[in-house]
Automatic annotation (TrEMBL):
Family according to the record: Belongs to the ABC transporter superfamily.
All residue ranges annotated as the ABC transporter domain in the record: 5-235
Entry keyword Repeat: no
Entry's Gene Ontology molecular function annotations: ATP binding
Coiled coil: none
Annotated protein name in UniProt: Multiple sugar transport system ATP-binding protein
Shown residues in whole-protein numbering: 1 to 239 of 361
Organism lineage: Bacteria, Pseudomonadati, Pseudomonadota, Alphaproteobacteria, Rhodospirillales
Keywords on record: ATP-binding, Nucleotide-binding, Sugar transport, Transport
Length: 239
């Protein structure tokens, strides 16, 4: 059972800067939705609003049929992977993966089961006793994704998770994330400024510009029937 998200008439300003303007997005259960747009267009602000890390000025966020607009982040059933995937440097990979579960007082047997499951899925089983300093960039990013996976979330939120990786790793991890989505069927909202990443991963893309959604459609429609010149230029020309 996957979870859908409805975002209705969302607005947010930082002082005089109107960062999110009347955002309306409907994320189908199990969809891979990408928020795509140039730097500064409001992608992270929107993702943080969904996560509850940022307040909004008006509008509604509904997750799994429940209005969570004023709900604490921890009660929204989400797991987030950030661009700067700060792992705990003194803890082993195993501890990094289980840390959030321990804080939540998940029973030990369940913690071990979930860590083993995520480690298998991400092919990091042989890394469990290492520390982050002994891992490559790609391996660290796998651990960061694993940390979100073990939390058994209804929705995964990714904020430019691959932008710190080199081109080769980025391609590899793209394939990996796509596979994860296909295997798990979990709803994903994924932020990137990389058109190729968006076009290969998404079932649906919200192209953003200046705090607004210019077009919200599947990759093929965006490519064949761009609604604006901006969309045409943005998804038409590779990064
Ligand atoms: P993106 O993730 O698309 O690069 P952001 O959502 O981070 O864009 O930022 C959107 C706009 O809001 C930018 O102009 C940014 O400078 C501004 N902004 C983001 N966070 C803050 C903040 N905490 N205070 C003031 N302005 C902010
Ligand atoms: Mg951002």
């Amino acid at each position: 059972m996957s979870t859908g998200i409805q975002i209705r008439s969302l607005n947010k300003s930082y002082g005089a800067l109107h960062v999110l303007r009347e955002i309306d997005i409907e994320v189908d259960p199990g969809a891979f939705t990408v928020l795509l747009g140039p730097s500064g267009c409001g992608k992270s602000t929107l993702l943080n609003a969904i996560a509850g890390l940022d307040d909004v000025d008006s509008g509604e966020i509904v997750i799994g049929g429940v209005d969570v607009t004023d709900t604490e982040p921890s009660a929204r059933g989400l797991a987030m992977v950030f661009q700067s995937y700060a792992l705990y440097p003194t803890m082993t990979v195993r501890r990094n993966l289980s840390f959030g579960l321990r804080v939540n007082r998940t029973p030990q047997a369940e913690v071990e089961k979930r860590v083993a499951w995520a480690a298998d899925l991400l092919q990091i089983r042989e890394l469990l006793d290492r520390k982050p300093g002994q891992l490559s960039g790609g391996q660290r990013q796998r651990v960061a994704i694993g940390r979100a996976l073990v939390r058994d979330a209804k929705v995964f939120l990714f904020d430019e998770p691959l932008s710190n990786l080199d081109a080769k790793l980025r391609t590899e991890m793209r394939v990996e994330i796509k596979r994860l989505h296909q295997e798990l069927g979990t709803t994903i909202v994924y932020v990137t400024h990389d058109q190729i990443e968006a076009m290969t991963l998404a079932t649906r893309i919200a192209v953003m510009k200046g705090g607004q959604v210019e077009q919200y459609a599947d990759p093929q429609t965006l490519y064949e029937k761009p609604a604006t010149l901006f969309v045409a230029g943005f998804v038409g020309s590779p990064a």
